[in-house]
Amino acid sequence: MTTRSHIAMFSIAAHGHVNPSLEVIRELVARGHRVTYAVPPLFAEKVAETGAEVKPWNSTLPGPDDDPAAWGTELLDHVELFLADAIQALPQQAEAYDGDEPDLVLHDITAYPARVLAHRWGVPAISLSPNLVAWRGYEEEIAEPMWAEPKRTERGQAYYARFHNWLEGNGVTTDPDTFVGRPDRSLVLIPKALQPNADRVDESVYTFVGACQGDRGAEGEWQRPAAVEKVALVSLGSSFTRRPDFYKECVRAFGDLPGWHLVLQIGRHVDPAELGTVPDNVEVRSWVPQLAVLKQAHLFVTHAGAGGSQEGLATATPMIAVPQAVDQFGNADMLQGLGVARRIDTEEATAEALQAAALALVDDPEVARRLKEIQAEMAQEGGTRRAADLIEAALPA
After folding, report:
1. Residue 170 in contact with residue 359, Cβ under 8 Å?
2. CA 371 distance to own-chain centroid
């Protein structure tokens, strides 16, 4: 048994960033380590259930219950929010750990203060990435074209100057792009199958451990209704869910489809009354225990977030990807390229298009074969136990 150490994890108040880390944290606690977790109060209870000690801090980012419009629509809207939050979070987190410095820092990719603090304390830092990572050539192929126009604007230059000054003021000499996109060490909490250009990822820095799902029984169970032949789950995740028109198209696509039962998760921003009268085979919920449903589902209509995408793969469920934001468009293309999904953009997601894609996917033996193949590959990646092994190996002697 490794000597008991203090491991500190840092994240933000977003389901897609906190959830992937939880089973790793639970495993480290079970191995006898003292684990603290710096996270906004909204997620304190969920984190505490792992056995970790919560170090609460207050965030200025829009929360899961806020209107998604608060994130803005442009690249600079997003990154300015993350930087402003990091700048105000750093003194809070430094105070929380004053006299209680850890032996090793774990951090989500958006937890910028964590890397600053690890530098200040002189301890190793490991990124836990809940989505795709950079490959050799990523900057030239993706980042530089994406940032070319914003960097020419006064606003973009001000953002970079502010970021650079913040890093320099804290003794970090790395430039902002490298600081955000190139960690010294990273465990990637997605299957390698979802990583673009996986053959060009530097595996001396990035290790794919795959999904770290654990026992999700605490989220509740879901029972497939009797006499149902096929189950379809529709979920756009937890943030970009204000899509009543899309949900109506889903009801039209699957409502009264012989033998089908539709589980429609609409989130907290849509009133079920907005959908009008729905057929008896449509189950409208604000939230569902997603993995429990997917284990019994035949089709998953998803926004293609990293978490949902890998749950679809882990349960060998054919997918219709309807991406809403950020990395979801790339994930949707990856899933389609793997031969296990169809991408349909929101504006094209009519009832007719959804139904046609659904029937083609569930009746295609090649889709089923590819899903089983990927499911078997994922099982070999190691998941939670391998992640914990690698973290323990990085602890200072």
Report:
1. no
2. 21
Q: 3-state DSSP call for residue 64?
A: coil
Using alpha carbons, select from 92, 110, 87, 93 the residue that is nearest to residue 11.
110
Cα distances from 156 to residues 63, 87, 137, 195, in angstroms, run: 25, 17, 23, 29
Instruction: State the pLDDT at residue 325.
Output: 81
- Which structure tokens are listed for 277? 């009268």
Distances (CA, A) of 13 to 27, 300, 378, 393: 21, 26, 28, 28
Between 133 and 213, the higher pLDDT residue: 133
Strand bridging mode 104-108 / 6-10 = parallel
Residue 1 has what pLDDT? 45
Distance CA 44, CA 37 (A): 9
Are the beta carbons of 282 and 251 closer than 8 angstroms? yes
Inter-CA distances, 166 with 163, 177, 183, Å: 5, 13, 18
43-59 tens-digit pLDDT: 999 999 999 999 999 99
